[in-house]
Amino acid sequence: MEKIIKSADRVKNIGEVFTPQKTVDFMLDQPEIAAKVNSLTATFLEPSAGEGAFLVELLKRKLIYAKSQANGKKDLQNKFLQALSTLYGIEIMEDNVEMLVMNMNSTFQQIYFQTFKPKEQSRKILCSAQVIISANMAQGDTLTHKTSTGAPIVFSEWKPIGKSKVQRTEYTFESIIEGGDSTGTVNKQYEEIDLFADPDEQPAKEPDRHYTIVKWEDVYKQLVE
Ligand SMILES: C[S@@+](CC[C@H](N)C(=O)[O-])C[C@H]1O[C@@H](n2cnc3c(N)ncnc32)[C@H](O)[C@@H]1O
Questions:
Q1: Which of 28, 85, 117, 213 has a Cα-to-Cα distance from 198 of 20 to 30 A?
Q2: Domains in the chain: boundaries
Q3: pTM higher than 0.85, yes or no?
């Protein structure tokens, strides 16, 4: 039996009702969404992520798609991280964010261990996955664009460079929303379907920090220039 509420108070105060798996599947099976799932660059933002009902299922589906696209095991490790890097969430409740991060990590790890033999496995990939998940799953208020400390919500863009490298760039959520005035931008997609996705999306504002271009497996080092 799926647990869809934690308490009546939380339902009343923050509208917390988790989506049953059947409904998640139904929604993600819609052709408009499915087309974005079958892409390694289309991004999704869940602005009220809860414990990750949608994001976890999106991750599973994106990793299946990555398998169908990879050219060998090494390439698949890169594509796994690339697929993961396209999923973003915001959640206001600290306990939900903890569960969200844990659920994303455990889902990634489970599929990773099922896919790669022990001798093919790399701790670097799992550490890099953890860094991506921590960066992409934000605690905060989607409406005010701020975290519980009053700091701006910050997201990272993970831009693939060639076949095996990535450039990480940080943007405040506010700047993404404000810059989103053209078709397919974060702002537009957020208003339309509460998930955003566009492979051609280019955030508009200046980055806060300059990360070094690294191999996907070295994302965990978080090297800055
Ligand atoms: C209806 S639940 C849906 C959770 C998840 N999307 C799912 O389908 O299971 C709404 C979630 O949004 C969160 N939430 C409410 N207001 C929010 C806000 N202003 N910013 C971010 N998250 C918020 C709640 O804590 C809750 O986890």
A1: 213
A2: 21-150+178-202
A3: yes
